[in-house]
Amino acid sequence: MLYKRINQQKANILIRKNLFIACLSLSFCIKANAQSLQNANKLFWSENHRLTISDFKGIPAKDDTVLQNVSPNLWTHKLSAITKSIDVSLNTEKNKTTFTIRAGMLPEFSWIKDPGDTIELKHEQGHFDICEIYARMLRRDIKKALTLDEAKSIYEKISTEEETEQDVYDLVNTFQAGGITTDWKEKIVSRLEALKAFKNPVIILPFDH
After folding, report:
1. Which residues are CB-contacts of 157 (< 8 A; sequence separation ≥ 6)?
2. What is the CA radius of gyration of the chain?
3. Who's near 109: CB < 8 A, 6+ residues apart?
4. Distance (Å, rounded) from C-alpha 112 to C-alpha 40?
5. Among 65, 71, 76, which Cα is nearest to 3's?
6. Run of H or E residues at 85
7. Measured in whole angstroms, how far is the alpha carbon of residue 143 from the centre of its chain?
8. Which of 1, 62, 94, 163 is the most buried (most CB within 10 A)?
């Protein structure tokens, strides 16, 4: 099976700029009433829910699935895509900032070409699990921040590292039987367990600026 997945980096940069981290581009100033609307169409990672085909509600563009001749010996096309990112919302009060940090996906912008393709489903679950790993890392590291600007810098560093690993994950796993290698599957489970102390999405820090 020869195929190429959607460029995860471009998709995730787009969603970060336009939807997922609007709070960051506004220097963490999203308000509670705006958060409810922002979260309405998102699916957040949960240890009690594994992705299903029905979670992928998007429709691929024509160019996403058309075979392309990228070299004399290789034709490629895309079979699935997940649009996901580390989602940060917050509420500031006097001398206190409450961060809610979650791995989230947009079902309407995520798709699987064949509704019965469980291989693609397992692969995209791996992407989502990696996003949760980095969300936990952000919850851990953001506690070092003394100001909102420092928190934003920590977010940007973690987010860049996550995108890099997502690209590596695709490179290693795209052509594997089952959509993900045994090594990667075990590594993901192990890292989630190692970071279980940071699975609570809410972090409260003693500053408001």
Report:
1. none
2. 18
3. 11, 15, 58, 81, 83
4. 22
5. 76
6. strand 84-93
7. 21
8. 163
What type of residue sits at position 182? Answer: T
pLDDT, tens digit, 9 for 90 and up, residues 43-93: 999 999 999 999 999 998 877 765 555 455 544 457 899 999 999 999 999
Q: Tell me the helix, strand and coil percentages in the chain, rounded to 5.
A: 50, 20, 30
| Both structure tokens of 87 | 């989602």
Cα 29 to Cα 22: distance, rounded to the nearest angstrom:
9
User: Is the pTM value of this prediction over 0.85?
Assistant: no
Cβ atoms within 10 Å, residue 78: 20
DSSP H helices, 144-198, are 148-173, 182-194
Contacts of 14 (CB under 8 A, 6+ apart): none
- What's the token pair of residue 130? 């990696």
